[in-house]
Amino acid sequence: MDSAESAGGRLGAVLSAPRTGVVALGPRGPWLATTPALAKQVLTDVDHFDFPGNVSRGGDLSGSRGDTRSGHLVFDPLTPVQVARGVATFAELWPEALAAHDRDTPREAYDAMELLRRPVARATCDALLDDASTDQREAVGDAVLAWIDALAPVIAAARAPHRWSRVRRVERDARLRLEAILEHVDGLPGTPQQAATMLAAGIQVPIAAGSWLLAWLGDQPTHDVDPIHAVWETLRLTPPTWITARLTTTDVELDGRLVPSGSVVLVSPLLLGRLPELVPGDPDELGDFDPSRWRDDARRPGAWLPFGAGPHACPGRNLGMAVLVHLAEWAVAHRVRLTQEVKFDQSRGLAPLPCRFRLNAQGGTTR
Ligand code: HEM
Hints:
This protein is α+β, with helices and mostly antiparallel strands and 367 residues long.
């Protein structure tokens, strides 16, 4: 398993920045808030820090809902009934996905990013689309996955693709196809555009989080792990939304420094998750996957903000946690084992590249 520390790129730049308050990563920013208090200030002070409008190049979908962020539209958190419905769907479809793999490609290792697509997509659709028929939920799930796939090259491009470029057109067509299906669904969370954004955030991020979970557990197969601790440890070391950005709407004094209006200020849950004041254990070993560190309940898991904070904190947090805990229980019981080295894909959020695994119970090839 590769490590974030050796991954380089933007991730490396953020991790190697001095952790001294607010630091400028370049001559004119972006700025990085490196302490928990400053990170909270940036995410909760909506009078001075706004969401960037352009979502399709923001790094991932979870911070996205179109071009009108300054209205501070917030999504309602999922209800316990919605969460229960989503997890029940995941619990039903995950074994189906494994069985389909065994039937179609029995000799190949499982690929977590592939395998999780349909169970997660349907779980989120079933949770959010209360009034939709099963066929509608299936169609919406497929259309969201197609939009996420079409967004990938737009987000990953080194320079923003032109409005009329092929990748932009493919992405726009995929989004419009999704919105057209949503037009016919009753009881959406918001307009079809808002529902599309929420669904995409609620599908893309849990697929990556679930894959990281399987990657970490597969790297060190053991029965002796608390599934909830394994989930927190995964969200600490590899939070899919590893960085999020806000724009200053006025000149702001942050940690005694003047940050000019219109500056980008970054908050990184991945960086915060490596601060000894937030994480129990030997400060020199905070880059290691060690779920047992959370047996020490002196520190609160989640203080590094893997679900954000403030008015734009994740409304699907409870569903995300419930699905991940279910997956962790399954992975521990089946002793998931990685079959090849995992690298860090930073092209949109953070995802394992690839996460291929086998189950110890199945035998098969060794690494
Ligand atoms: C393990 C799973 C998940 C993780 C780690 C996660 C993480 C996050 C984070 C960090 C943010 C804040 C981004 C920012 O401040 O820029 C966020 C926002 C969001 N998440 Fe999640 N999320 C997860 C699951 C879900 C699910 C299941 C849903 C929907 C059912 C969802 C819907 C959203 C939406 C709509 C936003 C944007 C909120 C806003 O802009 O007001 N997420 N998520």
